[in-house]
Amino acid sequence: MSVVRLCEDREGPRVIPAEEWRRYEANLGEILCALGMDLDTPGTQDTPRRLLEALYDATAGYDGDPKLRTAFPSERPEHVDGSYGQIVEGPIAFFSLCEHHALPFHGTAHVAYVAGDEILGISKLTRLVRLYARRFTVQERLGEQIADGLVELVGARGVAVHLRAAHLCTQMRGVEEEGSRTATTFWRGLYAQDESLRREFLSMIR
Ligand SMILES: [Zn+2]
After folding, report:
1. pTM for the full predicted model
2. CATH numbers and ranges of domains, the chain
3. Which of 121, 129, 140, 192 maximizes the CB count within 10 A of its CB?
4. Distance from first CA to last CA of the chain, Å, rounded?
């Protein structure tokens, strides 16, 4: 079991040999059938294959994202300190699979940072969120990874991440109210030290 990290050289699609793929399809077919699905209809005969493909696509974050690496000079003039200048992006929609049930949790992310010497193209923040969201994960780890990823990518002086998500594993099975959301915040660097930065971030995303 290997987890592809942001800075690893081995990036690119996971390779699953064709004969393995067919075996997984057959196993999924068996499970769906046991649960009650009739696999002998035009609508369902290819469902095991489609389910496997959908799961593969939904976990594409394990493939890494080579396009994330581009950073640019910060554009900050030399005489400017910039430690209170925030770059805030969001809401960024994300879809993950909870690692406890392999069922979706989904919601929005707000990501902010105080730049060091480099900045990131805005679209890269979305890519960063999706890199870690498209995996089997939990909301807490997702936020920590996004925060650390951003520090690592651009040497940000501070990072703030706010995630708000609905967890289908609890909602579909009636454990939790439909409409309930889980909110989590993650702070690095200047945000961890400075309450006024945190407050400004939270009021900007409200
Ligand atoms: Zn779950």
Report:
1. 0.88
2. 18-58 (1.10.286), 68-205 (3.30.1130.10)
3. 129
4. 39
